[in-house]
Design brief:
The protein has about 400 residues and is an alpha/beta fold. The chain contains ten helices and 18 strands. The radius of gyration is 22 Å and the shape is globular. The structure holds flavin-adenine dinucleotide. The site of flavin-adenine dinucleotide (FAD) has 33 residues, from α1, β2, β3, β9 and β16.
Length: about 400
């Protein structure tokens, strides 16, 4: 006998989104019973973060969105830039705390949703259901049975890959004395940062007013930096490139996202599935995950409402993943320069098409046209080499 129809492990972007979409229900169908288990405050709970994504102007989380931009810019190493409107879409910023409150209120009003704080240490298949074993904050063991389990705990070990880079960054929420930012424009990539020996680096600037912005220093490279490395890079960018002498750092955001061509299994056993980053929702070439998590959650909820097996569908097409694998390898080997690659793409491909491409919604012909805007020789050579390279397990801890 199951305690609940659905158990979700982890209340981050994926767990909360799935619980939210499940409770929306469907015409003529009652929402399922759901238990959402999350680790208590402590080392397993991720720190507050900001999620950015692009979508149509009237999105379902707009109430919780803290900033919106209509123009995105990419700047090359020598400062020449391409700024383009995002229309008909918008680039939005959602803070994880605001998302948690927004979804949390909704879930609190749902009698069939239960929330539980516990550290899950085991998920076992029972056949037509699964069992979750966890420890409550008071140290007492908890056991739950559910017909379907969706597990979003971040994987401790990545599946074998040919290429794994890290997208690692530090962001400062700064306030400046003089007006320094254009709040209508978000800088997706500003390559006026010193480039690392392997991979690439750029600044990412999200202004919320003329005096306030989140300024991030990001690398796609094989290893993280130490504290001083990030702070020096951010200070250098703010003082040299933005010519800011006086600024105050109000808050700091750190992140490490694996960019990998590993294949993430989404079905662990007949009743247990993985979702979110753990289920391969992170786009390997960009690290963007939030919008894919929404697509995944919506599809799972529809399957549950229709009484089908709710196996999470792939959120990135095989073609997108194959192209990303080539790009990761080309960046890793240094065959293509990251700054030339991305500035070239943004200069030559219309923004709307590029964003659709990153969502995996472009046609084969459009993908080919985009491919022709990249360094064709090195990319083809890399594509030819890939099938012969072995997949290896990488130890993420050794990369940090
Ligand atoms: C700083 C940062 C900024 C990012 N910015 C963006 C962005 O702008 N746009 C974008 O698309 N993507 C972004 N990403 C990538 C991605 O969207 C996030 O990592 C996202 O949080 C992934 O969602 P998730 O649910 O898979 O994992 P998480 O949000 O990390 O959730 C995992 C959950 O599992 C819980 N948990 C862990 N272990 C246990 C356990 N043993 N028992 C119970 N619960 C457990 C944790 O408490 C947590 O709630 C960012 C990532 C980081 C780190």
């Amino acid at each position: 006998m199951h305690d609940t129809q659905i158990a979700i492990v982890g209340a981050g972007a994926a767990g909360l989104s799935l619980a939210y979409h499940l409770t929306l229900g469907a015409p003529g169908r009652r929402p399922p019973s759901v238990v959402l288990v999350d680790a208590p405050e402590g080392p397993l709970r991720p720190a507050e973060r900001t999620w950015c994504f692009w979508e149509k102007p009237d999105g379902e989380f707009d109430e919780a969105v803290s900033a919106v931009w209509d123009t995105l810019r990419v700047q090359g190493p020598r400062g020449f830039g391409v700024a383009a409107p995002v229309a008909p879409l918008r680039y939005k910023m959602l803070r994880s705390g605001d998302f948690e409150s927004f979804v949390g209120h909704r879930l609190a009003a749902e009698p069939k949703v239960t929330r539980l704080e516990a550290v899950v240490h085991d998920v076992r298949e029972l056949g037509r259901g699964a069992e979750i074993r966890a420890l409550a904050p008071d140290g007492r063991p908890r056991t739950l049975r559910a017909r379907w389990v969706f597990d979003s705990r971040p994987p401790r070990v990545l599946p074998p890959s040919r290429t794994t880079l890290l997208q690692h960054f530090r962001g400062w929420f700064v306030t400046t004395e003089r007006p320094a930012f254009d709040p209508r424009v978000a800088d997706l990539m500003d390559f006026r940062t010193p480039q690392p020996a392997q991979g690439l680096s750029f600044a990412y600037v999200l202004p919320s007013s003329a005096h306030q912005a989140l300024v991030e220093y990001t690398e796609f490279s094989p290893r993280t930096l130490d504290d001083a490395g990030y702070s020096d890079a951010l200070r250098r960018y703010l003082t040299h490139e933005l010519a800011l002498e006086h600024f105050k750092v109000n808050r700091v955001e750190n992140g490490v996202i694996p960019m990998t061509d590993a294949r993430f299994p989404r079905r662990v056993s007949p009743s247990v599935f993985r979702i979110g980053t753990a289920g391969g929702a992170t786009r390997p070439s960009t690290g963007y995950t939030f919008a894919a998590v929404q697509r995944q959650a919506r599809a799972i909820a529809t399957a549950v409402h229709q009484g089908r097996t709710p196996e999470p569908p792939p959120v990135h097409s095989a073609r997108s993943l194959a192209m990303d694998a080539v790009l990761l390898r080309a960046l890793h080997t240094g065959r293509v320069s990251g700054s030339d690659f991305f500035t070239g793409l943004f200069r030559q491909v219309p923004m709307e098409r590029l964003l659709r491409f990153l969502d995996g919604r472009t046609s084969r012909r459009e993908d080919l046209l985009i491919g022709l805007r990249t360094p064709v020789g090195p990319m083809l050579r890399t594509a030819a080499e890939l099938p012969w390279l072995p997949r290896r397990r990488v130890n993420l801890k050794e990369m940090r």
